Amino acid sequence: MNADEHKPTRWQRLWSWLKTPLLLGIPIGVVLLVAGAASFQGVMVLSNQNAFCFSCHLKMDTIVQEYQASSHYGDGVDIPATCADCHVPHPFIDKMKVKIVATADIYHMLAGTVTKENFESLRPAMAESVWKQMEADNSANCRHCHQGDNFNLAAQPQRARLNHQQMDERGETCIDCHQGLTHNRITSR
């Protein structure tokens, strides 16, 4: 045997040089991916909690107080609807779109373009935007909770039962009758 037979080729040397960092990089990459996913999920969970919403709204408007006075806030027996239950879509892609658009709200608060002093004058346009979205998606967030045992037609008064049965025929959605249920009715409509 000559010494050249045991000498690694250029490609073998390159692979030997690459495989150590590559093999180390795989677990590091997995750890970073898991940490990134966990951080992302943590931000999603935190930003869907009432405390996150209240952190701005308590300082600048009456929306929190209106919500707390509504049937959606809960009475200790019924399960309350959170801000996110009504304002953040449940399907992932739609949720991400809303979260991205909502960063503008944070910007406007930090920039001072929406303040305690001007909020009520801006509120009708913001409410109209929410109502249009609810109409466009056929009140998907309302229907997410109000189904099955939470939407027992037989338990409703006759007028409500008939109206709910005829909603689709009339091209109506929840917001057409229940606007102002959780937040004060705005005079924009």
Explain what this protein looks like in three dimensions.
By secondary structure, the protein is mainly α. The chain has a domain at 48-178. The chain is 67% helix and 0% strand. It has helices at 3-6, 10-47, 50-60, 63-68, 83-87, 92-111, 119-136, 140-145, 158-170, 174-178. The chain starts with a helix and ends in an 11-residue tail after the last helix. 7% of the residues are buried.
Q: Sheet with the most strands?
A: none
Overall 3D geometry? elongated
**Measured distance between first and last alpha carbons:** 93 Å
By DSSP, the count of extended strands is 0
SSE class: mainly alpha
Q: Total helix count? A: 10
Task: Indicate the mean pLDDT.
Answer: 85
The share of residues in extended strands comes to under 5%
Rg over CA atoms, rounded to whole Å, is 27 Å
Give the H and E element order: HHHHHHHHHH
Helix content: 55-70%
Low-confidence stretches: none
